[in-house]
Amino acid sequence: MPEKKHFETDAIRTQTPASAEREHSVPLYMTSSFTFESAEHARAMFANEIEGNVYSRYSNPNTDEFISKMCRMEGAESGVATASGMAGVFGCLAGLLNQGDHILASRSLFGSSHQILSQILPRWGISFTYADTGNPDSWESLIQPNTKLLFLETPSNPGLDLIDLEWAGNLSKAHNLIFVVDNCFATPYLQRPIEFGADLVQHSATKFIDGQGRAIGGVIVGSEQFMEKIRFFTRHTGPALSPFNAWLFSKSLETLPVRMERHCDNAEAVANFLGEHPNVQMVKYPFHKDHHQLELAKKQMKRGGGVVCFEIRGGLDKATSFIDNIRLLSRSANLGDTRTIVTHPATTTHSKLSEEERESVGIRPGLIRIAAGLEHHEDIIADIDQALG
Ligand SMILES: *Cc1c(COP(=O)(O)O)cnc(C)c1O
């Protein structure tokens, strides 16, 4: 691995060495398996005496390049790429935990992560407790003798509340917990949890890493000590990322820094516009002047990210007509795309939660999430303006 350069340079120059063709851009290695030079070579590969590719469920040059790049960006030792972000979340938890173990998690988690904790892992005797994002003082008392892992997202989805990563890192260290952060909203360009004590960082590559709404994938990076177990689990259970998607994501990472700057510019402009609008009750954006954790945002994030949420005056009725009145922007449940997306969390992404659960993470009927894309900010704002009425 060449010496570490600036983030932008690593995003472009971390690549698989060229083949005999001397190609400039790394090609797609669309192959299920690899061949051996001799019987001895095959034996040595299977005995782990030499490194190399055997089978694309285990490793592939495109997947390896994508993982290496993510490791450099996050400052991690090693990683595993998965077929989706959720395969990564499940692979991490199932690979590391045993029957009887307990997870402490922040309450505002991605919907499917909530289902894994509450509906799937309990079937194998792995329990969980939610801690309130807004009340960090209560967390320590929720740690049990069998608590093995702390799992959180910051900024949270869709509420955009922050958790102090340094504080959470210290808490994990004091109680010997494996500290896992879903860093999907910030990306390593804006926030590097390992610098604050995280052991593992999880991503849905589907979002800002691809950034163009084309493919599903995930990646988890962190310390080799834990990765070994996760890799064993994913190798044998099989949620491998396809070489094609890995190739796509690795190319996408080349432009992550410039894309994230524009996502942040646009999100900031949208947040500032919404903050002044009479039909808007509140706006939430990590770097907005009214965010209650602005200081913390500046401490652990480079900029505020691509997602803004706001509460429209008039509750569900007004939220529904806002969504219906949108003309240019996309009505979708995704985020991290070139195209700006509007979502009504209470009736879509978070509809499986009870009303009480939604209320406890700030998802009220009037809440709308805007995932700012890369269009011109004046066109994005004009559409939001006309839809607000
Ligand atoms: C989308 C998302 C996931 C799940 O990723 P998939 O690629 O859809 O499986 C997990 N966490 C967060 C924060 C997400 O936004």
Task: Produce a short descriptive summary.
The chain has 389 residues and is α/β, with parallel strands linked by helices. Helix content is 38%, strand content 15%.
Give the integer mean of the pLDDT values.
Answer: 96
Question: Which strands sit side by side, in order, in the main sheet?
Answer: 1-7-6-5-4-2-3
Low-confidence stretches: none
Shape: globular
Rg for CA atoms: 21 Å
Quickly count the helices. Answer: 14
The CATH homology group name of the largest domain: Type I PLP-dependent aspartate aminotransferase-like (Major domain)
Bound compounds, please?
pyridoxal-5'-phosphate
Structural category is alpha/beta
- What is the count of structural domains? 2
The ordered string of helix (H) and strand (E) elements is HHHEHEHEEHEHEEHHHEHEHEEHEH
Distance between the termini: 55 Å
Number of strands: 12
Percentage of residues in strands: 5-15%
